[in-house]
Amino acid sequence: MIYLDYQATTPLAPEAFEAMLPWLRPETDGAHANPHSAHRPGRAAKAAVEVARAQVAALMPPGGRVVFTSGATEALNWAIKGTTGPIVTTAVEHAAVLDTVAAEERRGRGVTILPVGADGRVRGPAQARAQSRPSDACDPGLPPAREHKGGLWSAMLVNNEIGTIQPVADLADLAHAAGALFLCDAVQGYGRVPIPANVDLVAISAHKIHGPKGIGALWIREGVDLEPLLHGGDQEGGRSGTLSPALCVGFGAAARLLQERAEIDSEHVFRLFGLAHAHLGGWAINGSIEHRYLGNLNARRPGLDVARLMSDCRDIAFSAGSACASGSGRPSHVLKALGLSDAEARASIRLGWGRYTTEAELAAALDRIVAAADAQRVAA
Which pTM was predicted? Predict the structure, then answer.
């Protein structure tokens, strides 16, 4: 099987696996202990968690803290539900944002959805600036700490379906001018695309960076205070629940490796994108070419039957769209937001690669995909 679905999840790094193993073995000091307990085994587990927290924080802006969560979905829900006031977001956000925003709208919060252009990016600062309403209660240079009277703005760093990079720094400045906090969904970009220093909240997930599933984090800028999403022991200072040292350690090891291999991984992904772009020369690329994370290629071909293509290429793992929306039968909301017709959206595929994808594997998979697509055209 050739795996080309890195936006859905990434293979667990061997180094992360090895780092987790001791914390799954009963003979390891503190392995079975609650890291929030005061006894010696608990302190050993706590120490491992804190090392992991520092490793994850090393790829974040300065001036904030990392709070471990069960994943990015929880982190995004907490960031949105933990604030008050109107919400401004974009039409191409992940369902974890859009569905949560819709739920908040039903509770009475005002919501503005910014459209995007054909390249998948918000249509210029001027359009977003129209949503800005300076708040007399807030210093435009400093986001509010508790009441969030200016509300919350939210935008992805890197889109999970089309790889487009949003102008997050510009949007965060506009949010602050309106007295609002700014939430960045950095799940796809963390460690690969710099996170602007002027954001207030950042959601990330371990399994998108070759770490384990079941753990993520919310980075919270100093001075920002959120209402808790989960109530209980307040183990994480605003987030309740017992942490798994094994998952935290795996997350930390994956983040450390991401930092150490940043240049190597980036160059590898660049070469793979060039290879894919050349193979799919006759296909239309969805999203921006200039502003894009190069580990993603979302492309379409007129009349393509994607379900048949996936059946003909069963030994290649790729996606017809976002993994979170697959099987719904509906065209991707992201592709529709670009202005694509239903037929164009349904004729699109998403390919994702990364650290463990070889050039030979990718070339072989692309040859198979193109040949199967060509066969459809001949048969028609």
Answer: 0.93
Based on the fold, state whether residues 168 and 276 are members of the same structural domain.
no
Q: List the catalytic residue out of 138, 184, 313, 324.
A: 324
Residue 350: beta bridge partners?
A: 298, 319
Instruction: Give the strands of the sheet with 284-285, arranged side by side.
Output: 284-285, 296-300, 348-352
Q: What is the pLDDT of residues 281-307, one digit of tens each?
A: 889 999 999 999 999 999 999 999 999
Q: Which of 211, 238, 259 is where one domain is finished?
A: 259
Whole domain around residue 28: which residue ranges? 15-259
Number of domains in the chain: 2
Cα separation values, 152 from 111, 173, 219, Å: 10, 12, 15
| 346-357 tens-digit pLDDT | 999 999 999 999
Q: Does 311 lie in the same domain as 244?
A: no
User: Of the candidates 29, 368, 321, 6, which has an alpha carbon nearest to the alpha carbon of residue 189?
Assistant: 6
Distance CA 217, CA 64 (A): 12
Can you say whether the dihedral through the CA atoms of 247, 249, 252, 254 is positive or negative?
negative
Q: 324 catalytic, yes or no? A: yes
Residue 27 is encoded by which pair of tokens?
Answer: 């003979």
CB 17 within 8 A of CB 330: no
Q: In this structure, are residues 205 and 216 in contact, taking their beta carbons and an 8 Å threshold?
A: yes
Last residue of a domain, one of 217, 232, 259: 259
Using DSSP, state whether 317 is helix, strand or coil: strand
